[in-house]
Amino acid sequence: MSIVAASWAAVLTLTVGCASDPTTGYSSGALYPSKYRSVAVPIFQNSSQDRGISFQLTDATIKEIESSTPYKVVPEGRADTVLRASVKSVTLNTLSQSLATRLTEEMAIRVTVDFEWIDMRTGKPIVARNGFQGSAVFVASLPNNQPIDLGRFAVSQQLARDIVANMQGEW
């Protein structure tokens, strides 16, 4: 047997061996459950005082699902699954103040959500998380003078990525 043939045999053995090994937990399978094909994402509920966050977070989550999962976002009546979420709170925290003026310089925006991804056939949750948090920092003072909208956008993007990452299969 030539060196090339022996090398290919070794690669094939390793690849097949890693396809799904229950003793080590390693798998080369899909990241997302393949038994689902579609997901509905109704506008997230909002219990916070920040009126715009639920629309922005819903939009970011839909875009993240469409760009990084095999699932198609469809209306609820045609979906295999539904992702429901509720914004529980939005808080602003001062991270730093100017020594000269005592005005706020850096701020953190923290958003807390509850969400569940439900199998429409069974009505049972596939994934459910309560008190799920994301945060972002923005500079509210001069010279940057970043508006809270920038922080809201950043935290929505981060939370959307984290929510969709939770839709992956069990490791």
- CATH architecture assignment name of the largest domain: 2-Layer Sandwich
Please tell me how large the radius of gyration is. 22 Å
Strand residue percentage: 25-35%
The assigned structural class equals alpha/beta
Beginning-to-end CA distance, first to last residue: 38 Å
The average pLDDT value, as a whole number, equals 83
CATH topology descriptor of the largest domain = Double Stranded RNA Binding Domain
CATH class of the largest domain: Alpha Beta
Q: Which series of helices and strands comes N to C?
A: HEEHEEEEH
Full CATH superfamily name of the largest domain: Lipoprotein like domain
Compute the number of strand runs: 6
List segments where confidence is low: pLDDT < 50 over at least 5 consecutive residues: 4-24
Main sheet, how many strands, which sense, barrel? 6 strands, mixed
Number of domains: 2
Descriptive terms for the model:
single chain, 6 strands, 2 domains, 29% helix, 171 residues, 6-stranded mixed β-sheet, 3 helices, alpha/beta, Double Stranded RNA Binding Domain
Which secondary structure elements does this structure contain, and how are they paired or packed?
Elements: H1 3-18, E1 38-40, E2 45-46, H2 53-68, E3 72-73, E4 81-97, E5 104-119, E6 125-139, H3 148-165
Parallel strand pairs: 1-3, 1-4, 2-4
Antiparallel strand pairs: 4-5, 5-6
Helix pairs in contact: 2-3
